[in-house]
Amino acid sequence: MKIKAKKTICLILSALLIAVSLTACTSKTAEWNGRTIYTHVLLGIDETDLFQYVGSVDYVFVGKVLEADHTITEENDKSTYGVHVEKNIKGQLIHDIRCSKHGGLLEDGTLLLYESDRIRDTGLPEVGKTYIFMAYAQSDGSLLLSEFYGSTEYTEESLAQFENYHQNQIVSERERFISKYDACA
Predict the structure, then answer these.
(1) pTM over 0.85
(2) Could you write out the three-class secondary structure of 105-136?
(3) What is the sign, positive or negative, of the torsion defined by CA atoms of 64, 60, 160, 122?
């Protein structure tokens, strides 16, 4: 009888552990309350010229968002993502990466996004959708998604456009790093 009780307890604990781990892999975020505020940024490039923009970033890739945490705080203004890289356009990333993006949902549900004099961020990547991402490698090896164009949904047409931007990019001079997710690192 004791062995059967121990097996039952082990099965219950295993089921709870699986349930907790599945919950940890889903999107965690505050609820959007309908309010959006913008933080103004100045870039050293013309952010409306995608040939310059692609030349400024270290990586351009097609990726499917597997998980997201859009909740941000005053201490951490970045939302985080688990992404499966499906195709590299610029640079060579491994298939499963973690990255972050400035902006997200404040604890009260207000959406914080970036804007410049010329353009506004259009929103945050959503779990389950496939996008074309641009990212900067950081000095610690992490990846920071671009300020704008973070929700360019993948289509054959958008892929062709970004491949063209890459082939004809205008490279900007800036300090560059290699991501810890770089396949060649």
Answers:
(1) no
(2) ECCCCCEEEEECCCCECCCCCCCCCEEEEEEE
(3) positive
Specify the residue for token string 């356009």. Answer: 89
Q: Is the dihedral of CA 137, 138, 144, 145 positive or negative?
A: negative
Q: How far apart are CA 170 and CA 20, in angstroms?
A: 47
The rounded distance, in Å, linking the Cα atoms of 141 and 94 is: 13
Cα 55 to Cα 151: distance, rounded to the nearest angstrom: 19
Summarised one tens digit per residue, pLDDT across range 6-40 is 443 333 333 333 333 333 344 455 788 889 989 89
Closest CA to 83 of 123, 130, 153: 130
Cβ neighbors of 136 (< 8 A, separation 6 or more) are: 57, 58, 59, 143, 144, 146, 177
Q: What is the DSSP string of the chain?
A: -HHHHHHHHHHHHHHHHHHHHHHHTS-B-PPP-S-EEEEE---SS-TT-HHHHHHHSSEEEEEEEEEEE-B--SS--EEEEEEEEEEEEES-B-SEEEEEEEBEE-TTS-EEEEE-SS-B------TT-EEEEEEEE-TTS-EEE-SS-TTEE--HHHHHHHHHHHHT--PPP------TTBTT-
